[in-house]
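A reminder from the course coordinator: this example appears on the midterm review sheet, so study it carefully.

Given structure:
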């Protein structure tokens, strides 16, 4: 037997039920983006392989990518025992420390920024890098003051907007020992026609993204 509703109950049943919005899952908060230029690179080979080097967020500081350094030291060979090296625009020190890690007899890291110099000194102390000398100063002046034919490897990675490329290359060619090398990193490719008046010739070249990596030798 069905139950008969009262008039009030029937009216209540006919009223539309309020709409309830479905529950919305809370969105996870976005993590703040890491400022461009902040991070780290690592030493690719040698006794300090996989050592991480901090990269400060400074204008013009653009460390050589791991892949490019790996290619460079494949070109040079894995054993740099006895080599004399100068990293004229050291920045993070990645290039010069890579050479020291592979047995270079002496490596000069020259850098103008006082904060970067302090970081490099602390890093060398931690690594017990007795063959590495950190100097605060102008890389171009350091090259020009180097003795004739005194360096086996000159590393040149100045800020891309630097006006000192030609002067640095000319000074590097003068300081280069027989059979020595100059590494040059730029935003554009340098040809033999441009390098020849500076006393250098192209030995190897690699383009990786915005980077042109050149391995140069003195004209014979």
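Designed residues:
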């Amino acid at each position: 037997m069905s139950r008969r509703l009262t008039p009030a109950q029937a009216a209540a049943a006919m009223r539309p039920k309020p709409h309830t919005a479905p529950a919305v899952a809370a969105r996870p908060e976005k993590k703040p983006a890491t400022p461009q230029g902040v991070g780290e690179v690592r030493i690719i080979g040698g006794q300090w392989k996989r050592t991480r080097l901090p990269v400060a967020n400074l204008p013009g500081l653009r460390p050589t990518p791991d892949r490019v350094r790996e290619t460079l030291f494949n070109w040079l060979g894995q054993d740099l025992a006895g080599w004399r090296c100068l990293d004229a625009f050291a920045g993070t020190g990645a290039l010069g420390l890579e050479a020291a890690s592979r047995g270079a007899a002496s490596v000069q890291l020259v850098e103008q920024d006082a904060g970067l110099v302090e970081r490099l000194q602390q890093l060398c102390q931690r690594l017990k890098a007795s063959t590495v000398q950190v100097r605060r100063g102008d890389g171009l002046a350091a090259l020009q003051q180097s003795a004739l034919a005194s360096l086996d490897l000159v590393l040149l990675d100045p800020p891309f907007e630097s006006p000192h490329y030609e002067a640095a290359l000319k000074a590097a060619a003068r300081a280069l020992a027989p059979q020595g090398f100059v590494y040059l990193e730029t935003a554009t490719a340098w040809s033999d026609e441009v390098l020849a008046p500076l006393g250098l010739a192209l030995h190897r070249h690699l383009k990786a993204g915005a980077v042109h990596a050149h391995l140069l030798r003195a004209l014979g």
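The CA atoms of residues 68 and 143 lie 23 Å apart. DSSP finds seven helices and nine strands in the chain.
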